[in-house]
Amino acid sequence: MKTFTPKPADLTHDWYIVDATDVVLGRLATQVATLLRGKNKPTFAPHADSGNHVIVINAAKVALTGSKMGKELYSHSGRPGGLRRDSYAELMKKNPERIVIAAIKGMMPKNRLSKVQLDRLRVFAGAEHPHTPQKPQTFEITQVSQQAK
Asked: How far is it, in rounded angstroms, from Cα 20 to Cα 58?
């Protein structure tokens, strides 16, 4: 059996829309990272860019579990003194898109291809987005309750 290598004609970039209302942040990030990489397609190859465009709406309504509201999100500009620390509680009020983007970025592989795939991610705090002409398909994230019965 030969190894399948997708040709450039096989690489299509579909549009998906994900509603983040009451979805746990980590579960949202893994599902969106899978869509961005194109792992849901039968033509997936780790070296080829077969990823999709993903729109995440209602980022302000994402669910944070545990004690994340007291923790901080760190980022660095690369310049001396460029460390930035913001608490999750502040970011949920001011810029909830940054929390979702950071979580999804952490789920992506650390290579050059992930930068190209992350450019196809669009995150919005509310329900409105300007990408309706692309006719995105809705992607439902099903969550299973982890409570013992």
From this structure: 5
Tokens representing 123 are: 């995150």
Helix 25-37 vs helix 96-107: angle between axes, to the nearest 10 degrees?
Answer: 60
Q: Pick from 131, 99, 100, 95: which is nearest to 33 by CA?
A: 100
pTM: 0.90
Banded model confidence at residue 113, pLDDT cuts 50, 70, 90: very high
CB 26 within 8 A of CB 147: no
Q: Which residues contact 21 (CB under 8 A, 6 or more apart)?
A: 58, 61, 62
**pLDDT band at residue 147, thresholds of 50, 70 and 90?**
low
State which amino acid sits at residue 22.
D
For the chain, helix (H) and strand (E) counts, in that order, are 4, 6
Handedness of CA 143, 46, 129, 105 (dihedral sign): positive
Q: Is the pLDDT of residue 52 over 90?
A: yes
Helix (H, G, I), strand (E, B) or coil at 127: coil
